[in-house]
# Entry
Amino acid sequence: MANVGFISLGCAKNQVDCERMMYRVQEAGFTVQPDVLHADVVVINTCGFIDSAKAEAIDFILQMGQLKQQGLIGKILVTGCLSQRYQQEIIKEMPEVDGILGTGSYTEIVPAIESLLNNKAVSDFASIDTPEQECGRILTTPEHYAYIKIAEGCDNRCSYCIIPYLRGKYRSRQMDDILYEARVLAANGVKELLVVAQDTSRYGTDFAEHKRLLPELLRRLCEVEGLEWIRIHYTYPDEIDDELIEVIASQPKIVKYLDIPIQHCNSKILKLMNRRGDEKFLRELFAKLRQRIPGLILRTSVITGLPGEGEEEFNELCAFLKEQRLERVGAFPFSPEEGTPAAEMEFVDSEVAQLRAQQVELIQSRIMDDYNASMQGKVVQVLVDGFDEEMEQFYGRTYADSPEIDSRVWLASQDALTEGSFVNVRIDGVADGELSGYVLED
# Structure
């Protein structure tokens, strides 16, 4: 049977889709390669969310095209958001691509590969509202942590966001299917489970009962033997209720870390973005969360240069961030996406938007410096993620750090550490914004 290589770009949700495709391909008898060289088919699972993600995807396609021209790989199959968004353009303008699948056609990965191997062109775009079909996964994360996607699509319709046009309406997975997958992951050594969706807090609202079921799902995930950390991403502020807060506060396995993308705090801009709430609401929500969940780490993302953002609105955002001192903040310049309402509005020049994002990053770096200083001398639990050959040092994460997007803790130890183990560490230093410490003997 043929060899197939995969490249997955973009978010963790896209990564889960790729892992499912890899499983289907392997179950069909193909060999899934750890890299792409000499693969008979290379699958590029793309992101098409913003300009930088699109540029990255196009670069990878062109790189694979060069390898194909040199005879180092075979066919090229493009899947994911970029192919869904620009299906006609890819077919017409990128002759190196042999086939494309839309976001509603992930389940057709095996027939698509078989067609390409038989020199037949592939172009398959099923409904983006297709219900999720359950299957296994081949993890591409380290063995001790994994993402679990609890829903697909989005109904929020933020004015700047293209995702609903690429991923369809919100579709929650059945709870029993999620719990079964969690048990399988835990049985295979996963200790940290990262709960993801376009909007995790809306889980279950599309079922007949129209009820928020994330609290119940979390309680039942906490019962899964083997899981030690459960981390929640992408909770929308207006969907966080008292029941969810109580579950996070009371369940020891749920790390006290919440990812709440606010995007802005100014009322006018939030309204133009078609988002609910205002600065007063956000301030009260963060105060309640911190009061009810001791030790809570808050992560958010903000967009600079949005339609309607003048100096006054931007200064309001900066003042809000300085006041709230959120521990983790990502800042992104506005990217006008064709097909979205915001792209038709008058927005800030891209250079100004970029400069404003840099200003936010500077504010956040000072907050992080203070946070890191406050950690000196403390003993914290760290999940060992691996060993850096160049640094010749082990590294890991505290509950305050999600993989890939947050910081590491560099570890000094007299003994070799085991990846995926938990150790107690006394923090005694910081370099380049990352903590360091020494492992305490049991």
Summary: The chain has a mean pLDDT of 95. The two ends are 50 Å apart (CA to CA). The first strand starts at residue 3 and ends at 8. The chain has 13 helices and 19 strands.
